Amino acid sequence: MTTTKFSWETEAHRYDESRGGEVRAQAAAEGLGALLPEDVRLLADVGGGTGIIGRRLVRQGREVVVVDLTDAMLRLANDRLPGRAVRASADRLPFRDGTLDAVTSVWLLHLLPDSRPVVAEFARVLRPGGVVVCTVDKDACHDVGSDIDDVLGELRPRRDNAVGAAEQDATARIVAHAAEFGLAPVGEGAFTAHLRGTTPASLAELIRGDRYQFWARRLAPADRLRILDGLAALPDQDRRRPDPTFRLLALRRD
Questions:
Q1: How far apart are CA 95 and CA 183, in angstroms?
Q2: pLDDT tens digits for 184-198?
Q3: Confidence at residue 138, expressed as pLDDT on a 0 to 100 scale
Q4: In terms of residue numbers, what domain contains 69?
Q5: Quick one: average pLDDT of 42-65?
Q6: For the domain that residue 102 is a member of, what is the CATH number?
Q7: What is the mean pLDDT of the chain?
Q8: CA atoms within 13 A on the CB side of 106
Q9: Is residue 228 one of the residues assigned to a domain?
Q10: Are 137 and 170 in contact (CB under 8 A)?
Q11: Per-residue exposure over 22-39, b if at least 16 CB sit within 10 Å of its own CB, e if not
Q12: Is residue 233 assigned to a domain?
C-alpha cells in the first residue's frame, strides 16, 4: 500500500472542515476565554493555524496575533484577521520580553519533540501576571471509552519523541517545565470538540483512503488490517461515538 506523506501545507485547505469547523472553534474559544482574565487584551495564539479560534478570541474583546509556521494556514488566518497573522516558530516568538498579556495554544504541545523550549518561550514573552492557556493530554483525551477505542488499543496515536518519552503535553510534564520558568498553575478547564464523533464506518473509510491524519499513515500493514477487521466487526456502523473533551491548563507568570 502506497502512503502519502503528511503535510500541513496540503492539509490546510481542509483542516477546519475535517476537524469540527466553526462549532468546534467556538467551543475551544469559550474554553480558553473562561480561563483568560478579563484584563487580557494583547495575546498570541501560538500554533493558531487558520485563525478560526483566534477570530473568536477577537470577538471576546482581545487583540490577537496568530502565530504559525505553515504558509497555507497563515493565508487563511490572514483572511480572517488581516495583518494579524505572522510566521514564526513557537520556540522563537517575534515578541519582546514581557510584552504579552497572554499566550493561548490549542493542540500544539503534543506535536513537539520537546515542549520545554516552547514553554520557556511562552514565559519569556509574558508580562508579570500574564497567563498561558494551553491544551494538555491531547492524545489521551481521544480515548472516550468507546468500542472504537477498544479496537485501536495501544495503536492509538502517541507522538513520542525519538527515545520513547511520554507525550510532550502531559500535564505533569508541562507543569514541571513551567515551574522552571516562573509559571505556576492557576486553573484548569475543558471543552468538547462537538461534531467530531467518529463512527466505525467513517474511521475505516478514512484509514482505507489514508486520510486519517499522520498517525494512521505510520501503521504497519498488519496493524492496519487488524484495525479495519476490528472496526468492521463492531455493531452500529453509522452511529457516532462520543466526542472527545479536551483539557486546558492555565499558567500564570510570577
A1: 18
A2: 999 999 999 876 668
A3: 87
A4: 8-143+160-197+242-253
A5: 95
A6: 3.40.50.150
A7: 86
A8: 28
A9: no
A10: yes
A11: eebbbbbbebbbebbeee
A12: no
- Within-domain flag for 59: yes
Q: How many other C-beta atoms can be found within 10 angstroms of the C-beta atom of residue 193? A: 20
Question: For the sheet containing 183-192, what is the strand order?
Answer: 85-87, 63-68, 42-46, 100-105, 126-136, 245-253, 183-192
Structurally, the chain folds into a number of domains equal to: 1
* pLDDT confidence bin for 221, thresholds 50/70/90: confident
Mean pLDDT along residues 30-41: 97
- Cβ-based neighbours of 16, under 8 Å, separated by 6 or more: 22, 25, 50, 52, 76
Given a cut of 90, whether residue 82 has pLDDT beyond it is yes
pLDDT at residue 155 in the model: 66
Relative to beta strand 245-253, strand 42-46 is unpaired
- Does 19 fall in a domain? yes
Enter the pTM of the model.
0.83
Say if residue 14's pLDDT is above 70.
Answer: no
Type of residue found at 23: V
Q: Is the pLDDT of residue 201 over 70?
A: yes
- DSSP-derived secondary structure for 55-116: HHHHHTT-EEEEEES-HHHHHHHHHHSTT-EEE--TTS-SS-TT-EEEEEESS-GGG-S-SH
Please, are residues 105 and 53 in contact by the beta-carbon 8 Å criterion?
no
- pLDDT at residue 165 greater than cutoff 70: no
DSSP annotation of 156: S
Nearest to 231 by CA among 214, 208, 210: 208
